[in-house]
Amino acid sequence: MQIMGTFQEAKDIFHWIAPELEHLEKTLCEALASPAPLISEIGTHLVRSGGKRLRPALYLLAAKSCEGFDAKKAMPLAAAVELIHMASLVHDDVIDHAQTRRGAATANAKWGNQVAVLTGDYIFAQAFSMVSRKGYTEEVGERLAALVQGLCAGEILQDSALYTAAHDLEEYEQRIAMKTADFLSICCELGGMVGGASPETCAGLKAYGKAIGMAFQITDDLLDVTGDEGRIGKPAGNDIRQGVVTLPVIRALETSPDRDELRGIVTNREMTDEMVARAIEIVRASDGVAAARVRADEYLEEARRVLPETVGGEAREAFLEAAAYIGQRDF
Ligand code: FPP
Ligand code: MG
Fold it and tell me: Which of 33, 233, 278, 324 could bridge to 4 as Cys pair (CB 3.0-4.6 Å)?
């Protein structure tokens, strides 16, 4: 089994925080040990299935860039953000009836929907347990709550827009901000807050996180059209099949000579594999791919611009490398 987007790959980019990321893996395993053997088994499966650990890495990077960094204090929150991400994916895979993620079977495919939903709830509660009584400020708790509220609202918003062709850039960007960019943004901001950075630096880190988050999701959406299953760990055309209309498709719906045919496919809840393949073909032949690439690059440029001057040295280098990694990733 090939594991996609592994911890190892992310570790090379975040080598400055390698000891903290190493420790994070241990903390995650401990957090998912439960008196219920099945939850421990699923937790081990989820941790071993990899993942880029991008959210805790950004948080730790931001925190370590501050003079007031204390690894012991920072770690529970690093684990909490990854656990929230993990729980949201477990629930998302139930909603989407997904069979594979990161090249491995999803929890719902392996253990059924009921166990998957309850395990997601358990992991979610465990995330909040990690941060309670750790002396974080009230603001930290508020950010975490806002983050989860945004994720849920974003999922509902996306759901209400499924299999529809009336999309524009603004609506798309609001959707991806809620599901991805706000999360990355809050991770960067939380790092600054826990590290004791000034409000200006925290605001700059937040803006950096938002910009790379937007680029990250646009790249993800692009890969759904341009990537191959062997590399991205889930079937290509997944978004189209599930009725999620993304930037390359929105653009193709405006400019492709085959836009009427494309509209017919993406709004069809009964679309066949052949129709998905044809939709991908139409989008690939249009300027949708280039348009999405340009938009992602604009956000990466913005990320570099808004990164606070106060973030220097190895932390700065790593933040810039992270932006480059997001721009180049093909999984
Ligand atoms: C993956 O996106 C899913 C999300 C980013 C968030 C899903 C959020 C929820 C289900 C609600 C939050 C729940 C908890 C417990 C915090 P995607 O479907 O675009 O990506 P994918 O192709 O990798 O599935
Ligand atoms: Mg999904």
Answer: 233
The answer to whether the CB of 301 is under 6 A from ligand 1 is no
Any ligand 1 atom below 6 A from CB of 126:
no
Q: Which atom of ligand 1 is nearest to the CA of 98?
A: 24
222 Cβ inside 6 Å of ligand 1: no
CA distance 57 to 209: 12
This prediction has a pTM of: 0.92
DSSP state of 104: E
User: Do the beta carbons of residue 184 and residue 81 sit within 8 Å?
Assistant: no
CATH number for 7-328 (one of 3.30.70.2740, 1.10.600.10, 3.40.630.30, 3.40.50.300): it is 1.10.600.10
Domain spans, the chain: 7-328
As a whole number of angstroms, the distance between CA 114 and CA 120 comes to 10
Of 2, 81, 7, nearest to 47 (Cα)? 7
CB 289 within 8 A of CB 225: yes
Residue 104: strand pairing partners: 101
Number of Cβ within a 10 Å radius of residue 127: 23
The tens digit of pLDDT for each residue in 278-291 reads 999 999 999 999 99
Sequence-distant (≥ 6) Cβ neighbours of residue 23 within 8 angstroms? 71, 75
From the CB of residue 97, how many other CB atoms can be counted at a distance below 10 Å?
11
pLDDT of residue 36: 85
Q: Does the Cβ of 91 fall within 6 Å of ligand 1? A: yes
